[in-house]
Amino acid sequence: MNQYNVFKAMHEFARPGGIFVHAVPFTVHLEHGFFNYQPNFFEALARYNSYETLGLWVGPDWQLASFIPWDPILLDYLTLSSKTTHLLVAVQRKMYDKQFCVPFQEIYEDMVPDEVRSRYAMVVDGEVLDSKRVKYLTKDSVLAKEYLIQITGLNNWISAYKGQIDGLRHELAATKYQLDQARYGSPTAAASDWANKVDYGSIGLSGVPGRDLLNEVGRRIRRRVGMVLRRSPSS
């Protein structure tokens, strides 16, 4: 029942370089033991004690000797039922002869006050530090990760705008071609043929003289580009 004592005793029993092998119930294992274990538990255990994780696998069934490297996407493919007996297998190496540190689930670390974090300890480069201090030591890496996410988002916006601009360029090229046909083709046949192909009413240019058409199209395209730029996140 005392899970803290189990992992603390294992930690204290092993010498630096010693290896822990965990093969524990993962999903369902209905009525088998008191606990099911999660991959993030072993990830946090390694993080707080500076263990080297040599592998994390899922066993489709406790009677099978084959294992699959853990990936969260596996949960989309594992069949869960009352008879499911998936295993979670973790292999970790103890690196430092330091006191055992109780892990804290990483996704909640930034949600708790500093005075609560200070009650936990973490081994960093062979030194035991309280989690409050670790929070500020790792602030740069956390910010770097956040900046990377923001930069990726901005790159996606830029790619979207490039697509819209390419569309406008295509529209401008098609319009220029039509104008060239009307301007430099046969004075009667080309103009008549172009007039039959272009529906001025559908594009809101009904009644616009031919000599002003190019200026009108250019003005509309500049207006659309301006609207795209105004929707930019930096504005």
Structural class: alpha+beta
Separate helix tally:
7
Shape: elongated
Strand order of the largest sheet: 1-4-2-3
Pattern of helices and strands: HEHEEEHEEHHHH
Q: In terms of per-residue confidence, which ranges show pLDDT below 50 for 5 or more consecutive residues?
A: 186-191
Helix content: 40-55%
| Major sheet size, sense and barrel closure | 4 strands, antiparallel
The average pLDDT value, as a whole number, equals 80
Beta-strand segment tally = 6
Radius of gyration: 33 Å
Termini separation comes to 57 Å
β-strand percent reads 15-25%
Can you tell me about this structure?
The chain is 46% helix and 16% strand. It contains seven helices and six strands. Strand 5 (121-124) and strand 6 form a beta hairpin. The radius of gyration is 33 Å and the shape is elongated.
Layout: helices, strands, pairs:
Layout: H1 3-13, E1 19-28, H2 39-49, E2 52-59, E3 68-69, E4 85-93, H3 114-117, E5 121-124, E6 127-130, H4 131-137, H5 139-184, H6 189-197, H7 210-230
Antiparallel strand pairs: 1-4, 2-3, 2-4, 5-6
Helix pairs in contact: 5-6, 5-7
Describe this protein with a few key phrases.
7 helices; elongated; alpha+beta; about 240 residues; 4-stranded antiparallel beta sheet; two-stranded antiparallel sheet
In short:
This protein has helices spanning 3-13, 39-49, 114-117, 131-137, 139-184, 189-197, 210-230, and strands at 19-28, 52-59, 68-69, 85-93, 121-124, 127-130.
